[in-house]
Structures are given as structure tokens and as C-alpha cells.
Write a structure and sequence with these properties.
The chain is mostly helical. The protein has helices at residues 7-15, 22-29, 31-42, 70-88, 91-111, 133-155, 159-178, 187-209; strands at residues 46-49, 59-63. The N and C termini lie far apart (34 Å).
Length: 215
């Protein structure tokens, strides 16, 4: 799951006016992966490229006990919720933000081959939709664009910003699915991930700045 992780962010912003701003929710949705690629750079978590490990994704995510355990994801969710509460003193906003962070683990559970854990040690979990692209691909595109449509309908940002974000998300997903596979993990692996997450977040922030402009 890549752009599909932003579907809960968009849905949360559409469902409640008390949700954090969409830019913050975009960070929340991918906070677990921001942390993973940071810890990858630091040598605290590990992955390698192993073409064939699944049909759709060559990443062998063999050691990520901090970020991609349910316990670890819950810790990141609690930290984000605490920061949101300190920022706005709104318990509902804090809970929504924390829920968006935690959604990352459950969406990963659908698509990953078994590499997720409950608390950092086996058993490893994953339903493996990466091995079923005819299910995973329309699911990921569908939930993302569906949530974006709902957000646009409710929050009414400028149409140009919605179209721009949709195009960026689809382009990022196309590179993820069809781009060349790196031979080895390098610092550039993390930097490329940071660029992709950052670009999408900046576009979402821009869209959020235009909310209600279409009224």
C-alpha cells in the first residue's frame, strides 16, 4: 500500500470539521513510513530488494519491529495524538489524528506478505494482496480517489488543487508499481521515499489552503 495510506486522511477530513488540517493528516497517514525510512538510514531497521518476494513489490521488509509492529504503530499514533492535543487542545482532533496514524498498520496488513508483527517478534503477519494485483491495484486506486472525491465534495477546495493532487498521487503510484527496481538499498532509497511523501504532503497542504474557495 502506497497512496492508499492517504485515503484515511482524506476521509477523516471529509467526515469531521474537527479533524486536523489535511496537510497534518497526510503526515499522520504516512508517519510510520517516514519513521521507517529514517530508521533505515540510521541502521535501526532493515530491508533489501528481493525481486519475486511478491508479485507487485520487490521489497523484503525483514526487520522493522519498531515501525511496523501493531504496538509500535500504536505508539506513533499516541505520540501524534498527544502533539495534536497540545497544538489545538481538541480531544476529538487528537483522536482522529491518532486513528489516521494507526490505520497505516491495518492497511499494510491487507497487502504485505507476512512481515508485520504485533509487538516486534514473530509470528509475522500479512494477507498478501501484493500477490494479487487484479485486487490490490483497483482497491488502492479506488479508495484513494474515492476518499479524494468525498473530501472535495465536503470541503470544496479549489478544483485545480484537487486535480493537481490526484495527478501527483497517480504519478507516484505508477512509479511505485512500474518503475525500475533498485539493485541494493542505499541512502537514496530513503531520500526518494522522503521526496515522494513530502511532495504529496505539500500538494495536500496547498489543497487545504483553498478549502471553501469553490463556494
Amino acid at each position: 500500500m502506497f497512496i492508499g495510506h492517504w485515503a484515511p486522511a482524506l476521509a477523516a477530513a471529509a467526515a469531521s470539521k474537527r479533524a486536523p488540517r489535511i496537510g497534518a493528516l497526510f503526515i499522520a497517514a504516512q508517519l510510520v513510513d517516514w519513521a521507517f525510512f529514517g530508521l533505515l538510514l540510521a541502521g535501526a531497521e532493515h530491508m533489501r530488494f528481493s525481486p519475486g518476494i511478491s508479485v507487485m513489490n520487490p521489497m523484503d521488509l525483514y526487520h522493522m519491529p519498531i515501525t511496523h509492529s501493531l504496538l509500535g504503530a500504536a505508539g506513533f499514533a499516541a505520540a501524534f495524538a498527544a502533539l495534536a492535543w497540545l497544538s489545538c487542545k481538541d480531544g476529538t482532533a487528537a483522536l482522529i489524528g491518532g486513528a489516521v496514524v494507526l490505520s497505516h498498520w491495518f492497511l499494510d496488513l491487507l497487502v504485505h506478505v507476512p512481515d508485520l508483527t504485533l509487538a516486534g517478534s514473530p509470528p509475522k503477519l500479512g494477507f498478501g494482496l501484493w500477490n494479487h494485483p487484479w485486487i490490490e491495484m483497483p482497491l488502492e486506486i479506488g479508495i484513494t480517489l474515492g476518499a479524494l472525491w468525498w473530501y472535495a465534495k465536503v470541503r470544496r477546495p479549489a478544483r485545480l488543487t484537487v486535480i493537481a493532487l490526484a495527478m501527483i498521487l497517480l504519478a507516484l503510484q505508477a512509479v511505485n508499481w512500474f518503475g525500475p527496481v533498485e539493485p541494493v538499498v542505499t541512502a537514496g532509497t530513503s531520500l526518494l521515499a522522503f521526496f515522494a511523501y513530502g511532495l504529496a504532503t505539500v500538494m495536500a497542504w496547498w489543497m487545504g489552503k483553498t478549502e471553501h474557495a469553490g463556494r
